[in-house]
Design goal:
Structural class: mainly alpha
Helix content: over 70%
Radius of gyration: 21 Å
Strand content: under 5%
Distance between the termini: 24 Å
Shape: globular
Largest sheet: none
Order of helices and strands: HHHHHHHHHHHHHH
Number of helices: 14
Length: 355
């Protein structure tokens, strides 16, 4: 399939994702995340491995894996402490020292680790020689330590936002758009630019077309699964836009809440579909039969876990879902670098044509 046909296919997938997100946002997200998500994680990690993870040294990815292990450990450590200590009748954590201090300590590091991984990925991509990396890594370590002692300053607030949204909406929306833009600029493709314009237009449509949330109801299974998965992203966005009306019911059932849910469902669904639509270009399917069988087997197992209990699937796939985000960071930086280079070339030559 030619690049132009793939771009037209993606335009169709953008429209399909948008329409489905308008009508069944909650169900669309849950289905996409459980069915398309695991296959995306597995195939992308396999492809990134074949590309040496786009880092300057072949073993750099081990640092990202180690940081992901720490992140998962701290995250589940928080959950274990919360469950062990228990909750009050009002639903708030009933914490006593030293549990409160330990939970705060783990929480601070969960805010910093993703930022550390993202910044370390830039070092891995840009600097090859080990001795040239000593100072950048040292500065990064000091920065992470200092940020963990800024809990009462705006620095911590912005760090929390950056760390919270980077593995979620920034990953599935901003970087998807960046990949599309880099590809269109690199190939000087008008059909690619058309897809990007449609991508932006559909995103804006969720705000311009005001929904009517009257009578909006979710099944108990859908609500429980959504609360266990992406709900915190909805909650944070709602908190920024309508803090005075923040409540569980409004986040799920208000007009604003429905706008947010539609945008999230669209972003995740198209993120996955975009990956699979470019199989012939990316070539992630060019692997051994053994690896292909392993990928398919693990994917079927993942779907089975979600079908058995959505929460069980989330917990079982948490490491894999986060790992693919971390391992993609060098490619994210490479795409941003490519966008800058291609844009500079277009401005310098004053022509969209390839020279």
């Amino acid at each position: 399939m030619s690049a132009t046909k793939i771009n037209h296919l993606n335009s169709g997938l953008i429209l399909a994702s948008c329409l489905l997100a308008f009508y069944i946002p909650f169900e669309l997200f849950l289905i996409s995340y459980a069915v398309l998500g695991p296959l995306h994680y597995l195939t992308e990690i396999s492809w990134l491995h074949n590309k040496s993870f786009f880092t300057a040294r072949s073993n750099d990815y081990r640092i990202l894996v180690a940081l992901c292990v720490l992140m998962v450990g701290f995250t589940f450590g928080q959950d274990i402490i919360a469950r062990a200590v228990g909750f009050t009748s009002s639903g708030h954590l009933n914490l006593m020292e030293p549990w409160r201090s330990l939970l705060a300590f783990l929480g601070n590091f969960t805010n910093s680790i993703t930022l550390a991984a993202f910044t370390a990925a830039l070092i891995m991509m840009a600097i090859k020689e080990k001795h040239h990396r000593i100072i950048p890594y040292f500065v990064l370590i000091v920065l992470v330590i200092l940020l963990n002692y800024q809990a009462d300053t705006p620095i911590f607030f912005y760090l929390l936002l950056f760390a919270f949204f980077l593995p979620t909406l920034i990953h599935v929306y901003i970087f998807t758009g960046a990949f599309m833009l880099f590809g269109a600029l690199k190939s000087r493709s008008l059909s690619g630019m058309l897809s990007i314009g449609l991508f932006a237009l559909c995103s804006i449509s969720f705000v311009l077309i005001v929904p009517d949330s009257t009578g909006q109801q979710l099944s108990q299974y859908t609500q429980d699964s959504y609360l266990a998965s992406i709900f915190q992203v909805n909650y944070r966005i709602f908190q920024f836009t309508n803090p005075e009306t923040l409540s569980l019911g409004n986040v799920l059932y208000s007009d604003t809440g429905l706008v947010i849910s539609r945008f999230i469902a669209f972003s995740y669904t198209y993120h996955y579909l975009n990956w699979f639509s470019k199989t012939s270009i990316i070539g992630w399917h060019n692997i051994s039969n053994l690896r292909l069988a392993t990928v398919v087997g693990l994917w079927l197992l993942a779907i089975s876990l979600y079908a058995y209990d959505y929460k069980v699937g989330l917990e079982a796939l948490f490491f894999l879902s986060l790992l693919h985000v971390y391992l993609e960071f060098p490619l994210n930086w490479l795409s941003l670098k490519g966008i800058g280079e291609e844009t500079f070339d277009i401005v310098q030559t004053r022509s969209f044509a390839k020279h």
